Amino acid sequence: MKDLSKFSAVIIGAGDATGSAITRKFASQGYKVCPVRRPKSILKLNTLCDDINQSGGFAKGFGVDARDEDEIIGLFKEIEESVAPIDVVVFNPGANVYFPIVETSSRVYRKVWEMAAYAGFLTGREAAKYMKERGHGSIFFTGATASLRGSSGFSAFAGAKFALRALAQSMARELGPQGIHVAHFIIDGAIDTEFIKELFPETYALKEQDGILRPDMIAENYWNIHSQHRSAWTHEIDLRPYMEKF
Q1: 244: helix, coil or strand?
Q2: Can you state the angle between helices 18-28 and 42-54, rounded to 10 degrees?
Q3: Do 36 and 13 form a contact (C-beta atoms < 8 A)?
Q4: Is 244 inside any structural domain?
Q5: Which residues pair with 86 in a beta bridge?
Q6: Any idea what the Cα angle at residue 72 is, between residues 167 and 175, rounded to 5°?
Q7: Residue 16 vs residues 6, 9, 42, 49, 226: alpha-carbon distances, Å
Q8: Is CB count within 10 Å lower at the N or C end of the chain?
Q9: How far is the C-alpha of 59 from the C-alpha of 183, rounded, in Å?
């Protein structure tokens, strides 16, 4: 059995809910976790890392703009050289915005695409460079309902998420035969976050009935997919509460 403490797991977009839960899950299994957020969120990232380190795990946070090619290249190089060989990469930034099409500026569209698609490409490419040398590893991309269908007012988000899904499919077909597991996770439903609690209280009230997604249970699925035997790999999975329509 592989000694996971000799490897690292990189979680890009280690936000307060899903990203943090994924980070904690992989840390609990023995990985040296490297959660990543934008530089302005570094204090929250330090709190997450402190909690994991005080619990006996290993966590080292990085403040990086995932849209910046040089920063992503430097991030992977530093982790490989100063932490541990990278065995898992989860791309999980949020980029959800609502704008009617006539109010969607080119700047908004470009920024959302950069966050949800271009940054995913940079992340996947750098992860593949290192994993190919070892012939194993997992690269996971977080999608959304918008990965499958574009809703009114979400042209920028849907366009970016469609692109990310296509990237994941292409990478899976190329890298799977080389021993690298590429998977795409469609999160279809409201998640237990402060954002949902404050802006959608009626939806948040469904939490008592398990009617919204729990971040720790989402993280459990990431771990389960990572743990699969290569003879039966999942490429795409969709997660939603039992009462969610689809």
Answers
A1: coil
A2: 30
A3: yes
A4: no
A5: 8
A6: 35
A7: 26, 18, 12, 12, 22
A8: N
A9: 24
Domain that holds residue 122: 4-238
Residue from 209, 212, 211, 210 nearest 195 by CA: 212
Neighbours of 79 (CB within 10 A): 23
How many distinct structural domains can be found in the chain? Answer: 1
Query: Cα(47)–Cα(228) distance, rounded to whole angstroms?
Result: 31
Residue 100 has a pLDDT of: 77
Residue at 245 is within a domain: no
A 10 A CB-CB count for 212 gives 23
State the DSSP code for 114.
Answer: I
Domain assignment of residue 19, yes or no: yes
Q: What is the pLDDT of residues 159-202, one digit of tens each?
A: 899 999 999 999 999 999 999 999 999 999 889 988 889 888 99
> Could you tell me the CATH number of the domain that includes residue 163?
3.40.50.720
Residue 151 lies in a domain: yes
Q: How far separated are the first and last CA of the chain, in Å rounded?
A: 39
> How far is the CA of 197 from the CAs of 23, 103, 170, in angstroms?
22, 27, 36
Q: Which of 64, 57, 50, 60 minimizes the C-alpha distance to 86?
A: 60
Strand segments (E) across 76-217 = 86-91, 137-144, 180-187
Cα–Cα nearest to 129, from 169, 89, 82: 89
